[in-house]
Amino acid sequence: MKRYLYIGFILLLIMLTGCVKQETQGAAPSDPTLNKAARGSQAEMTDGVFVYRLVSEKEKYERGDQVQVYGELEYIGEKDEITIGHAASAFYFPMKELTRDYNISYAMNEPYITTKLKKGEPLREYYKIGGGYDSRDDKRYKDFIHSLKDGFPGGHYVVYGSADFVIDLQSHGADQGGSNGEEPKRYKIQAEIEFSVSEDTK
Description:
This protein has about 200 residues and is of the alpha+beta class. It is about 20% helix and about 35% strand. It has helices at about 1-25, 140-145, 170; strands spanning about 40-45, 50-55, 60, 70-75, 80-85, 90, 95, 100-105, 115-120, 125, 155-165, 185-195.
């Protein structure tokens, strides 16, 4: 019995690791120059009755500055408010440092949480330091990820942001679908921005 439990635990770990890597790779394209001409320090995308904004408060930060990047989600539909469902947050902020070609993942717990959006009042959330690695990564990459807790090292960064959520059917009933066993519509609104950090404080 113990042997089967151990095998089941190992399989679960493999599945979870695969999911995290898939999320990171899906959010950060292998060729970061594809949309370079369209990138700035702010971006705005609309999907139906939702507007997603991705913003860096500066285009260039000095070494030691706190990098201020945030996502916003605004409801612009006909109702006074709408309830959405999402993981620990509706916002994801995976990044890539272009000089070193390093991915900075953005892992998240996945409970099901609901949030009310009032029409015309954006929900805003700031980026929190993320990043992770596994035993196969080289020391330079591990040192880079560790250094993030003291501020972003000098370099050029792309944020592959997204808002990932559904309309909560329990809150809105049949008018949002789902009464016939249908899945609620999933929204994944994506945008890309860039910012840089100077190499030193001089």
